[in-house]
Amino acid sequence: MTMQSLEDVRRAFKPNLPAVLTAKHHTVAETSRVVSVTTSIRSSFPSTSNMPFIRFEAGEGSDAVRPMRVGAVLSGGPAPGGHNVITGLYDSLKAFHPESRLYGFLNGPSGIVSNDHLLLDDETIARYRNQGGFDMLGSGRTKLETAEQFERVNATAKELELDGIVVIGGDDSNTNAAVMAEWFAANGSPLRVIGVPKTIDGDLKNEDIEVSFGFHTATRLYSELIGNVMKDARSGRKYWHFIRLMGRAASHVTLECALATHPNVVLISEEIFAKNQSLKDIVAYLADVVVARADKGKNYGVVVFPEGIVDNVPMLRSLIEELNDVTTGMDTASPALVTERLAPQSAETYTSLPDVVQEQLLLDRDSHGNIQISRIETEKLLIELLQRELEDRRDYKGSFDPMAHFFGYEGRAGLPSNFDCTYCYGLGVTASALVRGGHTGVMSALKGLHLPAEQWTPLGVPIVSMMHEEIRHGVPKPVIEKALVDLCGANFKRLEAERQAWEVEDKFVCAGPLQFEGATADYAPISVLIDSGCL
């Protein structure tokens, strides 16, 4: 008997395309839509801040005049569907002219600088159709920002005779793309740079980017795990599960998973910040729910929250900001040494934290010089503080047996959902068309994602239109603004209307495994469906 793996079966999946991309088409500059940016952003991007929004029209496409040469790079953490961006790009370039070439730069942006590349062919592409991970090319987080780097990128582009580079990444990676597009435009180079919106965190979104790719698959995988934990909690009836999810700046992953599974408690960073809630407030709320459930004989439950909540509690945010300052330049940092350098209020906050959290706050910094919030085990912090609170509550007669979880890397590289396969393939085809149309400094986009794929609308969105200034290493820098959960938006309002009923009563939904066949297999993320009024 011959057995096929699920990976083999997935390779046979055929994504559909927006109708306009299946016929001859051309790109049109939307002169009626003007990019609105601040004076400082415009001064940083004088050559590309006036790039128009791009739309597509069918019926007037021209036959290929010459083959195209394009480079593609995977940047940042993996997200399900990245390989399909490359396969869509490859198929589109080959359909345009069979002698077109697609080069994949290895190990992220550094591969462009060093001209470390792979010439992609039919055999390689076939192996990675509809597959998870970024292992076709590897990835990296090298920032492209110096003149020396751009000179070397220019040398790579000239050596390979590139018409364009497609950057597949998140907000920082697409900021890289915008800076690179500006450098080439300012230096009179015809090289085109196109971005593609990737991040499982879901915080690269706006009016035109309805969702970043990988978000759907990751949240479905997390929702399956959360549903499994819920079943376990309801079976044993003795454990409280605290589940930390990805999302430092934004809580989109937590919100999507909560809408899919209905946990007893959902903490949203943006809400905590907006309400100026203290750590004591959060713990008191958790204790209220634990006590209320215990009164009904339910000494179990499920709490979900994003990793970034510690950065949104005002006193912890102040502490983290001060820690970033006082530890700068320190060869070694210990809790005792750091406490001496903190202001009295921050020192009090710091010493009140569990020892393990104090140590985690002193771990290596990220590429921006900031504390790596993802390394802080917030679930253990909440558990320890909640245990203290429950011990002080005389009205509490239940038992509290907590379990800590972090669901993060499990969601970044799984086999992509039908939605992400199709969405990413379409983004790749759109990116190819934008390069052929001579556009640069724009992001490949598809709108109308609640509709069947044939009805999606391809666009090119100026990357500069998404930017604001942010302090990096103490200096203001133009970067793509992260999209936070809108507390007035339909998705949060849906959660707000329903979650009180989840606190004491078990409304758990077991999402089950990600489906590749069946009536719901092609659905968009819940948040997209709610935003569009479909759900």
Automatic annotation (TrEMBL):
**Which pathway does this chain act in?**
Carbohydrate degradation; glycolysis; D-glyceraldehyde 3-phosphate and glycerone phosphate from D-glucose: step 3/4
Keywords from the UniProt entry: Cytoplasm, Glycolysis, Kinase, Magnesium, Metal-binding, Transferase
* Residues marked Important for catalytic activity (site): 198
Which residues are in the Phosphofructokinase domain? 69-432
Principal location class:
cytoplasm
Q: Which amino acids does the record list as binding Mg(2+)?
A: 171
InterPro entries from the entry? ATP_PFK (IPR022953), PfpB_PPi_PFK (IPR011183), Phosphofructokinase_dom (IPR000023), PKF_sf (IPR035966)
Where are the active-site residues found?
A: 201 (proton acceptor)
Family annotation (HAMAP family): Phosphofructokinase_II_Long
The name of this protein is Pyrophosphate--fructose 6-phosphate 1-phosphotransferase
* Species of the source: Carpediemonas membranifera
